[in-house]
Write a structure and sequence with these properties.
Strand order of the largest sheet: 6-8-5-9-7-10
CATH class of the largest domain: Alpha Beta
Largest sheet: 6 strands, mixed
Helix content: 25-40%
Structural class: alpha+beta
Order of helices and strands: HEHEHEEEHHHEHEHHEHEE
Distance between the termini: 37 Å
Number of strands: 10
Shape: globular
Number of helices: 10
Radius of gyration: 21 Å
Length: 326
């Protein structure tokens, strides 16, 4: 038994805060076994898997609300699942807990996980607990996808549409406000900080998977993630005026704050989707998005000239794609 301060123990954490997240699924053995199983016998579907970790002082601040940390660890994984055209099924959760974690923290964290699980329809399959000198949360998510469906991030044709869901750059603005590199009005501060603390995945992916050539979530910045998709084989022509920015973001840029459009295009943690698809499927994608109240914007097309090209004076020379090792 690994004991933590504040009278916490593995048994207490599992029984009081984690068992409620398995939704009584048989394969979890109600967390009484050292392993679990996935009952996935539908012959028309296959299993998908993705994994991500978030770490204190790198992906979140040490004093962040535990609800925000729960939101982030699920969003980074769900956005990958949705970008594959899959639906979430279950997940494994590993918690590396420092001494300052207490029952109040665990209660807020686990209740937020339960809320998200109910919203998107998945459950906790199992995981591991350990003591650490800083907070690290790791999760492996399993999803289901039709057996005949395969979505690659870099498979498309010349003149294909490039579309983006949601708005760009709001999380970046919130982060800079929290880091005290910039400050706006109270209302704007609260709006953008919330976008950084509580990102949401875009669930459009599995709804449009049959009409898409490639798809990727925007986790490391629109430009950096798009360059990854192009894979040094093709290029992209981007219409700058079509890049989706919220009214609040446009207001900030127009007021000549310290934020530049170039910085927002390089910023991560938006968790929208980059979608590359044939023009013939454009209306189908827009119709499905509209029915589900999801904003989709056509921002450009695939071209033969390698690299990212803009239809204006905008010139981004330094791509600042996020990398944990830089």
């Amino acid at each position: 038994m690994k004991l933590l301060k504040s009278n916490l123990s593995e048994k207490l954490i599992i029984n009081k805060y984690l068992k409620k997240l398995n939704f009584k699924n048989k394969g979890t053995f109600d967390f009484e076994n050292d392993g679990a199983y996935l009952d996935f016998n539908n012959k028309n579907y296959k299993l998908t898997v993705t994994t991500d970790s978030i770490s204190e002082n790198i992906d979140f601040f040490s004093n962040d609300d535990p609800k925000s940390i729960a939101q982030k660890i699920t969003t980074v994984n769900l956005s990958d699942i949705f970008a594959m055209g899959a639906l979430p099924h279950s997940y494994l959760l590993n918690l590396y807990l420092p001494n300052h974690i207490n029952e109040n923290w665990l209660n807020l964290f686990s209740n937020q996980l339960k809320k998200i699980q109910n919203k998107y329809g998945f459950y906790l399959l199992g995981g591991d607990l350990s003591k650490s000198n800083k907070l690290i949360v790791s999760a492996t998510f399993f999803g289901s996808i039709k057996k005949k469906l395969e979505l690659f991030q870099n498979k498309f044709d010349l003149n294909d549409d490039i579309l983006v869901t949601g708005n760009i750059g709001e999380s970046k603005i919130g982060l800079e406000i929290l880091k005290k590199n910039n400050s706006l009005s109270i209302n704007l501060n609260q709006y953008f900080i919330k976008k950084y603390l509580y990102p949401t995945p875009c669930k459009l992916g599995p709804l449009i998977a049959n009409y898409v050539n490639s798809m990727k979530d925007i986790s490391d910045g629109l430009i950096g993630d798009l360059i990854d998709m192009l894979n040094d084989k093709y290029g992209a022509l981007i219409n700058v005026n079509k890049i989706p920015l919220s009214v609040k973001t446009k207001k900030i840029l127009n007021n000549k704050n310290n934020f530049r459009l170039e910085d927002l295009l390089n910023a991560g943690d938006d968790y929208g989707l980059i979608i590359i698809s044939s023009k013939k499927n454009r209306n189908k994608i827009f119709n499905i998005a509209n029915k589900n109240n999801i904003n989709v914007t056509l921002i450009g097309k695939i071209i033969s000239e390698k690299g990212i090209h803009f239809d204006s004076h905008l010139n981004i020379k330094n791509i600042k794609k996020f990398d944990h090792f830089f």
